[in-house]
Amino acid sequence: MKNLKKLTLLHSNDMHGDFLAEQVDEALVGGVSMLSGYVNKVRQEEENVIYAIAGDMFRGSVIDSEYRGLSTIQIMNMLAPDVVTVGNHEVDYGVAHLLFLEKCATFPIINANLHIKTNNARLFKPYYIIEIDGMKILFIGIITEVALMQCKADQMIGTFITLEDAADEIGRICDAYNAIDIDFTVLLTHIGFEEDKKLAEILDPAWGVDVIIGGHSHTFLEEPAVVNGIPIVQAGTGTDQIGRFDILIDTDENRIDSYTWKTIPIDEKTCPRDTAMEDVIRNYKSETDAKYGRIITKFVRKLTHLSRIEETEIGDLYADLFKDATGVDMFFLGSGSIRTEEIGPVLTKGDFDENYPYDKPVFITYWTGAQIKRGIKRMLRDEALEGEHTEFFQLSDGLEIEYDQNTHEFLKFDFEGSPIDEEKIYTVGLEEFFFLNSRDSFDLDSDEMEKNHPSREVASHSAKVLEELLSKSSHLNAKGKGRLIIHLSDGSVTGI
After folding, report:
1. Where are the alpha helices (DSSP H) in 296-389?
2. Residue 289 belongs to a domain
3. What are the pLDDT digits (tens) for 209-237?
4. How many domains, in total, are found in the chain?
5. 31, 21 contact by CB (below 8 A)
6. Parallel/antiparallel/unpaired status of strands 114-116 and 456-459
């Protein structure tokens, strides 16, 4: 007879400081008060409950950014996850600050592959074992290589680059601890849904990985993807839903006997409110409202940024403002730098900081026309256009590009009304992150740019540049079309 035990495994990912409930169709949806209420409710109703978070607790709200994550840690301490892994945005305030925040956390933060280059010492404990009802549940944390990109300014920090390296590290940990009768193994990853599937494919079944709970790509699933016998799940983004596994574990064979999985909507119909949590958030919000309620500007209408992989209204506006401020020929603005889908028509300081939370240096770089074509073609690779979590860029005025995904060729590539000159050197403005990671973003090494002309920093605070220019303007508008037209392989066309 099988020895079966039940485990309820709740999970979130990519919460991004989404602390407050929102009014949707006359109902309250999301927010950590009702999320906490649901987690507490399940913990009372079920015997064996574990709540895990697969990275990116930080970034996305002024409550988070104003306190540089300290507010988030306090709120997460009250939410009381059992285990958390590091996401790429956990590094946004710097590695040293992240290590400080870890000391403030009352829950374990794990990661197996961030390390100090000089001696390979890990920055975090790579795994965490939870003992519950006589079972031992092993969690291993794996981070996306984007974290290494984020750490480029800190030459002492490294991570394993390839999925094969990550798989080897998982194998070493599993081999070392399976001997102590691990009943169930969970990978908490932050590498994106498509990468999770690739990782699952190369895992040795002997290592005993049972489940992958992922993050980073903000993927909302109707059902798990099963690869190499391993269920892979994510729960979208924010706090509007939570993932839930109900699992029967065969503790004799140390494997899943059966399971169900679904996402649970976090709303007032199904989730009680955590009033103590609301008191904490209310205190933070009252402090930030006083500072962030001032009006920066008023647009002609609401402006939107509804897709990371298309030209958008906010993208056009910000790219043009950066171009004018830096005096470059063209500015390539990271789509992912824009964090909310709409702003205006009245833009407050709080709205702006949530929409563009990054305040890093801006650089002038020098590219030939041929290198610009190469960089944009890198941006338009198939995996990006098919929704994989890759870098994409908003383009400043003067560029008119038309691209065919079927042929992978440009139908048009004009600058200021004429075909771009492949031999001419143009000035291109970049945010620091993309300047430091030009190889991944544009298939262009920094030394190639330096041969054209030395790059230089022209502004130390990108957000302050935008805020200043916005505050000096009124009645701004943006079209969000015509600069980047993409003929997709399914026959649809974007950007017109």
Report:
1. 313-326, 349-355, 369-379, 382-385
2. no
3. 999 999 998 999 999 999 999 999 999 99
4. 2
5. yes
6. unpaired
